[in-house]
Design brief:
The complex is a heterodimer of chains A (330) and B (196). By secondary structure, chain A is an alpha/beta fold. Chain A has helices at 50-57, 93-101, 110-113, 120-131, 136-149, 155-158, 168-180, 198-215, 226-232, 250-255, 260-267, 306-310, and strands at 6-19, 22-35, 39-44, 66-76, 82-84, 103-106, 186-190, 218-222, 235-240, 243-249, 315-317, 323-325. Chain A has an eight-stranded mixed β-sheet with strand order 6-7-8-3-9-10-12-11, with helices on both faces. In chain A, strands 2-1-4-5 form a four-stranded antiparallel β-sheet, covered by helices on one side. In chain A, helix 4 (120-131) packs across helix 5 (136-149), helix 5 crosses helix 7 and helix 7 (168-180) packs parallel to helix 8 (198-215). Chain A is globular. Chain A starts with 5 loop residues before the first strand and ends in a 5-residue tail after the last strand. The model of chain A has no long low-confidence stretch (mean pLDDT 89). Chain B is α+β, with helices and mostly antiparallel strands. Chain B is 29% helix and 14% strand. Chain B has six helices and six strands, in the order H-E-H-E-H-E-E-H-H-H-E-E. In chain B, the strands form two sheets. Chain B has a four-stranded antiparallel β-sheet. Chain B has a two-stranded parallel sheet with strand order 1-2. In chain B, helix 1 runs parallel beside helix 2 (50-67). The mean pLDDT of chain B is 86. The chains are: A alpha/beta (330), B alpha+beta (196). At the A-B interface, helix 8, helix 9 and helix 10 of A face helix 1, helix 2 and helix 3 of B. The structure holds adenosine-5'-triphosphate and magnesium ion. Adenosine-5'-triphosphate is lined by residues 17, 19, 24, 26, 44, 46-52, 62, 65-66, 108, 224, 288 of chain A.
């Protein structure tokens, strides 16, 4: 692959939390790349480190307990300049310029990221002026333009409304408008549609795809909905217990899932018209501060061999950009 | 606790020490402790990933058989609803718009909103290019609903009658299938089609 096409590369990323219970290895040797104009989907069990991965890219890991303890996050800006985000001071000028201007994020809980006491317009204007040198009037015009872009009707009036006056779907659109107001190169969307009904979910996803085409940005979408991944993503990273256990182009992943955890996920989906008892992966995820020896999935894996219980598997190249961390394929 | 697949030694653990799926099991154990006949499950799996979701849905089905329970199951995910339900009720803006046996509702919806929901279900494989249809407009303000049928502003079949008169929920020829639409008997709507 041509390096110019790659916007962001995570290699060997480790983000740990130092707690009373021990070291929580929330992100432990994570590798993936995001191409320009393309979408990477991240899926995996609750608590496997998806949000912490995205917070690491934004340098928003909560201090003092949390820390990027190793690895690199290489970001290639428009001028081809390479920056290792993992090395930047979270509060320094370079990181501030990247956060918001170059990489924007839609957070998992929209309610908590909108301030109830300011109008949505003021909040978008503030975020625009924080990152771009625009006067108040131009910033307001830009805010209205963004609200129109995300399909908010009567944007000129809505701009003065408060978050509680909007429906869940509208609030999510406002979040997207805010994230896009600075023309980011990468949009990180953490479970952007989980709280919405399917018709609104479909609208929001369609909107994201439209904007991606219009603005040429890359998207990293975190979700546990495999349907959403199938629809939106070009590439998928499957995470389990702080690690990427499988990485592939989306069609290849659905056609040829190699990791037993990925296979289990795909088989656990209810299928309309088939009332048979659902397949489910037995057992629970291990505690990230007390990981077992060997492969973290071994205890739940029907095909585990002796080596799976004693040694951690390395990443295996399965061809066509498809890789898997599993002894069964070594 | 053992009934819901937890261990007795976990009795003294605190909520933050459980995973999302385990916490959901605790919630089910708490509901069962009172020996109810009916359990209302409000979005019991929507925060869970599919593998944990499958565990909880199987558990709910096992308990239903063992204890002869009735569930009122509220959810967004239409494949989950179809899997768990015998009958399905669709609501729009605080009103019931359709009730039917699960298979019938998915195969032969009679309300345009139900049809729209079924068309918005994501495809199960990325090669399936069935495009999700989206509804125009937004959910109207519940405190200030539009006149007539609540759905008429977003409905592609609506007529003047729909703007004027509110349709009542009525059963269609003794079929155990009720719908609130002026044109339920004349429209021919599409059911769910999966091409993979
Ligand atoms: N501030 C913190 N202190 C200690 N541990 C934390 C902290 N934040 C997250 N963790 C732990 O890091 C792990 C990864 O959390 P993360 O929020 O990334 O999960 P996730 O994959 O986004 O899950 P979900 O699907 O539920 O959103 C979890 O085990 C969590 O308990
Ligand atoms: Mg998360």
């Amino acid at each position: 692959m041509n390096n110019d096409n790659i916007l962001l590369t995570c290699s060997g990323l480790r983000t740990y939390f130092y707690t009373d219970d021990g070291v929580v290895k929330a992100v432990d040797d994570v590798n993936f790349t995001i191409e320009r104009g393309k979408t990477l989907g991240i899926v995996g069990e609750s608590g496997c480190g998806k949000s912490v991965t995205s917070h690491s890219i934004m340098q928003l890991v909560p201090k003092p307990h949390g820390k990027i303890s190793g690895g690199e996050i290489i970001y290639r800006g428009h001028d081809g300049e390479e920056v290792n985000i993992a090395d930047l001071d979270p509060f320094g000028p370079k990181m501030r310029q990247i956060r918001g201007n170059e990489i924007a994020m839609i957070f998992q809980e929209p309610m908590t990221s909108l301030n109830p006491v300011y109008s949505i317009g003021d909040q978008i204007i503030e975020s625009i002026r924080l990152h771009q040198k625009l006067n108040k009037k131009d910033a307001k015009a830009r805010a209205i333009e963004m609200l129109k872009l995300v399909g908010i009707p009567a944007a000129e009036l809505r701009v003065n409304e408060y978050p509680h006056q909007l429906s869940g779907g509208m609030r999510q659109r406002v979040m997207i408008a805010m994230a896009l107001s600075c023309n980011p190169k990468l949009l990180i969307a953490d479970e952007p549609t989980t709280a919405l009904d399917v018709t609104i979910e479909a609208q929001i996803l369609e909107l994201m795809v439209d904007l991606q085409k219009k603005l040429g940005m890359s998207i990293m979408i975190i979700t546990h909905d495999l349907g959403v991944v199938g629809e939106l993503a070009d590439d998928v990273a499957v995470m389990y217990a702080g690690k990427v256990v499988e990485n592939a182009a989306v069609v290849d992943l659905f056609d040829r899932p190699l990791h037993p955890y990925t296979q289990g996920l795909l088989n656990s989906r209810p299928v309309i018209g088939n009332k048979k008892r659902l397949f489910s992966i037995p057992g629970n995820v291990p505690h990230l501060a007390h990981l077992p020896k060997g492969c973290p999935f071994a205890a739940r894996c029907a095909n585990a061999k002796d080596i799976c219980l004693s040694e951690e598997p390395a990443v295996v190249d399965a061809g066509q950009g498809h890789s898997v961390r599993c002894w069964l394929h070594a | 606790m053992e009934l819901v697949g937890l261990n007795a030694w976990q009795f003294n653990q605190y909520p933050h020490e459980f995973s999302g799926g385990q916490r959901q099991r605790v919630g089910i154990a708490r509901a069962l402790a009172l020996n109810p006949d009916l359990i209302i499950c409000d979005e019991p799996v929507s925060a869970l990933d599919v593998s944990v979701q499958a565990q909880i849905l199987n558990l709910l089905e096992d308990l239903q058989k063992k204890l002869n329970l009735t569930y009122l199951f509220i959810a967004h995910d239409l494949s989950v609803v179809e899997h768990i339900s015998d009958r399905v009720m669709v609501m729009y803006l605080g009103k019931i718009v359709e009730i039917a046996k699960s298979e019938e509702l998915y195969e032969q919806p009679l309300h345009p909103y139900t049809e729209a929901l079924l068309k918005a279900i994501p495809a199960s494989h990325p090669k399936n290019t069935r495009k999700r249809e989206t509804l125009p407009g937004n959910l109207p303000d519940p405190s200030n609903p539009p006149g007539g049928c609540n759905f008429h502003l977003r409905c592609k079949y609506s007529t003047d009658l729909c703007a004027k008169e509110e349709p009542l929920l009525k059963e269609l020829n003794g079929s155990d299938h009720s719908v609130a639409c002026h044109y339920a008997e004349t429209l021919s709507l599409d059911g769910f089609e999966s091409s993979f």
